[in-house]
């Protein structure tokens, strides 16, 4: 009889324990791959403060845009350029958005700059292997715009540069790695992406006349199932998060 009572008591304790355990809260954020380092840190700080886990989906902005349309799920969208938020806004997917930081394209070359690349015109030299982003991601679209502007002044050089493209990355991080690991002589990436790779690559600035600086927004999606926590994260990124972005070399928008 005593054994039976003990078993019943143990079962009651287990049942009570199960019913009082809090369900882990989680929000889903789609973020451009070029912002993974600061956003990973921001996500950890947010979870520590609010007890809400952030599940990040990092990829090229165009792929994230397509995924949102396909799944009709998610809470936060942070692409590498406003263009993608604008497209979702037109389709009725954006609840609210704000501009957060800037993406500034630069040329990266192998450490020591063995091919003596000093600007866009040098990317047209013979035997230069160039890595760029594909047309579905923000850095790929930026490169295309840069070439359009540069090509108006130097159409022949533009053609030579485009012929020197040997690989197109699905993310800006891939483009950077192609150069850092020696698979390409030069690449077009965001200035902030170079943080942590200073010992492997050198940075060459793009002439302001031809450069295309992108605005990076953060948006709350209308597909959110947890508007309260999505709002908390949105505000956290726009306040505490800006300090983290600055630490990783981003130029935040105040």
Automatic annotation (TrEMBL):
InterPro entries: ModA, ModA/WtpA
GO biological process, alphabetically ordered: molybdate ion transport
Keywords: Metal-binding, Signal
Gene Ontology molecular functions: metal ion binding; molybdate ion binding
CDD domains, A to Z: PBP2_ModA3_like
Keyword Transcription regulation: no
NAD listed as a keyword: no
Protein name per the record: Molybdenum ABC transporter, periplasmic molybdate-binding protein
Taxonomic path: Archaea, Methanobacteriati, Methanobacteriota, Methanomada group, Methanococci
């Amino acid at each position: 009889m005593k054994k039976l009572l003990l078993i019943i008591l143990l079962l009651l304790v287990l049942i009570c324990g199960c019913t009082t355990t809090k369900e882990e809260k989680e929000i889903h954020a789609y973020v451009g791959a070029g912002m993974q380092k600061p956003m990973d840190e921001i996500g950890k700080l947010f979870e520590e403060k609010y007890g809400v886990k952030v599940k990040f989906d990092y990829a090229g902005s165009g792929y994230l845009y397509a995924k949102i349309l396909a799944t009709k799920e998610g809470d936060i969208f942070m692409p590498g350029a406003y263009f993608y938020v604008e497209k979702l806004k037109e389709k009725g997917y954006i609840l609210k958005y704000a501009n957060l930081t800037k993406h500034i394209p630069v040329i990266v070359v192998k450490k020591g700059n063995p091919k003596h690349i000093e600007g866009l015109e040098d990317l047209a030299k013979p035997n230069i292997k160039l890595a760029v982003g594909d047309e579905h991601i923000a850095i790929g679209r930026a490169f295309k715009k840069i070439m359009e502007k540069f090509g108006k002044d130097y159409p022949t050089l533009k053609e030579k540069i485009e012929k020197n493209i040997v690989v197109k990355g699905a993310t800006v991080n891939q483009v950077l790695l192609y150069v850092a690991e020696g698979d390409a002589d030069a690449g077009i990436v965001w200035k902030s992406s170079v943080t942590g790779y200073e010992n492997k690559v050198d940075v060459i600035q793009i002439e302001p006349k031809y450069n295309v600086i992108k605005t990076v927004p953060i948006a709350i999606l209308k597909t959110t199932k947890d508007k309260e926590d999505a709002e908390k994260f949105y505000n956290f990124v726009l306040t505490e998060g800006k300090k983290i972005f600055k630490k990783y070399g981003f130029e935040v928008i105040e």
